Automatic annotation (TrEMBL):
Keyword terms: Cytoplasm, Methyltransferase, Nucleus, S-adenosyl-L-methionine, Transferase
Domain of life according to the entry: Eukaryota
Enzyme Commission number(s) of this protein: 2.1.1.85
UniProt GO BP: methylation
Compartment(s) where it occurs, according to its Swiss-Prot or TrEMBL record: Cytoplasm; Nucleus
Family designation: Belongs to the methyltransferase superfamily. METTL18 family.
Enzyme class of the recorded protein, top EC level: transferase
GO (cellular component) term, any one: cytoplasm
One GO MF term attached to the UniProt entry: protein-L-histidine N-tele-methyltransferase activity
Annotated organism of origin: Macrostomum lignano
Protein name listed in UniProt: protein-histidine N-methyltransferase
Amino acid sequence: FNFQIDPKDIGNDIESFKISTSCENQANKSKSTGLISDKSSGQLKELSLELDELPVCEDDVVTSVQLLKGSTNPNASVSYYCPEEVSLWAKANDLMPIDSEQSTDLVSGVYEGGLQLWECSEDLAKWLLDKAELQPGLRVMELGCGAGLPGLSCLRRHRPVKVAFQDFNPEVLRAWTMPNCRLNLADLARPPQLEFLAGSWAGLAAWEAARGAFDLVLTAETIYNPDYYQQLHDALSHLLAPDGVALVAAKVSYFGVGGSESLFCDFLDRRGQFSHSTAMRTESAALARVILELRRRR
């Protein structure tokens, strides 16, 4: 992408990085520190933790650890905790953002499906592992991260200076994103700076103004609802550096929800701020998917 990064921005080495905190202990900690979602406020909340404070799901809590590998670069890989087991654990510890008796992938404005592993997040993660050639030292943000696989792919292969993960629900960050980050940092001699943000995209403008823009913004499965297009557009407008790139991975159509690639691209064209092109398209009779590349118009 030909980004220009100042080498002095690259973080310092981390000499020691111990993994010792279980998800069970972190569940108790999250209850005591008020990290359960305030469904009424919708405000952005920064969850600040040091690297050795990130929760980890130990084998006696969530036993299944799966491996995602790039098909053309077998040395680049991302590990993540099994979403089905994480969801069961989260329900058992009252960390689900919806009532435990409900069985749904989505409750608009309450729970946006963050504890599911969606196909397009895997598409984007694999594309970043296999195809993308990025300069080291980038500032990376993943919006609507859930498991955080695209952000973790950058973390594992491209040596960013910073990766920020945002999800609507702090419970998702605590129960899944943070343990996945801890899992993938263990063997890195030079981990990037990590940030975790919970809440609506509407809060990102004020947050970014105090911290600076990002070279690469990643998001997957976030265009399913046209009602959110303006918020997503505004978030990208505030977050993306002048020469930055946003990668949007999505299904071509979201049946029953209303969103689609064509609707989103039409929305971008009407706003006139971003150009868009296709970085990858997966043709399938059952589930066509795409990765869009967005840049600011000159």
